[in-house]
Amino acid sequence: MLFAEALSQALAAGLEISTALQVAGDATPSRRFRSAIQQMAIICRTGYSLEISLSKSRIVVGGELLAAFRVGEERGSLAEHLASYARRCHPHPAACVARAQGRSNVVSRFAIALAELLADRKMTVQIVEEAALLAAGAGTRFTRIISIIAEDLRCGAELSQALRMHPRWFDRLFCRLIAAANERQVLRRTLLRMSGDYAKLRSP
Fold first, then answer.
1. Is the pLDDT assigned to residue 147 strictly greater than 90?
2. 74 and 21 share a domain?
3. What is d(CA 54, CA 60) in angstroms, rounded to the nearest whole number?
4. CATH of the domain at 133
5. Structural domain count, the chain
6. Cα separation of 187 and 173, whole Å?
7. Residues 65 and 119 occupy one common structural domain
8. Are residues 112 and 91 in the same domain?
9. Same domain membership, residue 25 and residue 6
10. What is the pLDDT of residues 29-46, one digit of tens each?
């Protein structure tokens, strides 16, 4: 379930499939599984379907996940089918992925707040600061960290680069998906996917 949800998030952020596989594999706790996913990504690059690449990597998974790969790839909606599979396995798959990365609740609240602000406004340093206030309140450790990040943004850093400087708060998966989402609406959807706010995903 963790792999399916992480892969769904990576694809929704705009990563191409082999890169998304590597990112999702890195997000899983099992070293053996990560190694098998890397092998799957290599096989996929040679032109095999995801279902066949998965079987050739000798990863043992259930038929439902294989079906999600096959149907999702055939219909061009792989991210959606993987997300549906993950929700059938657990009611809150995004929260499970976040917990596996060591992500704090305040970062998830920050992601939701930032997504809400991006609904009708373009990305600015002020929006990032406002999202932190909404998520954590004034004078907290988190807002102080965001103040440092805001200064980096004003000096020309990309958001993902600035976040990556604070790994205690922002995990590798979070930063990699932010880096991949290069348009406002894609970033907004990515933030909502990572926070598990599926209701807002249905709104424009």
1. yes
2. yes
3. 9
4. 1.20.81
5. 2
6. 14
7. no
8. no
9. yes
10. 888 888 888 888 888 888
| Amino acid in position 40 | M
Q: What is the pLDDT of residues 44-79, one digit of tens each?
A: 888 888 888 877 877 777 788 888 988 998 898 999
Of the three residues 85, 100, 115, the one that is the final residue of a domain is 100
Q: Measure the N-to-C terminal CA separation of the chain; round to a whole number of Å.
A: 27
**pTM for the complete prediction?**
0.86
CA distance 96 to 138: 28
Place of tokens 């805001």: 150
Q: Among 49, 75, 100, identify where a domain stops.
A: 100
pLDDT confidence band for 124 (50 / 70 / 90): very high
DSSP string across 20-70: HHHHHHHTSS-HHHHHHHHHHHHHHHTT--HHHHHHHTT----HHHHHHHH
Same-domain pairing of 133 and 94: no
Whether 36 and 24 have beta carbons less than 8 Å apart is answered as no
> Within this chain, do residues 62 and 95 fall inside the same structural domain, yes or no?
yes
For the residues of 58-124, what is the DSSP string, one character each?
T----HHHHHHHHHHHHHT-HHHHHHHHHHHH-S-HHHHHHHHTT--HHHHHHHHHHHHHTTSS---
Domain of residue 63: give its range. 2-100
Rounded to whole angstroms, the Cα distance separating 191 from 60 reads 31
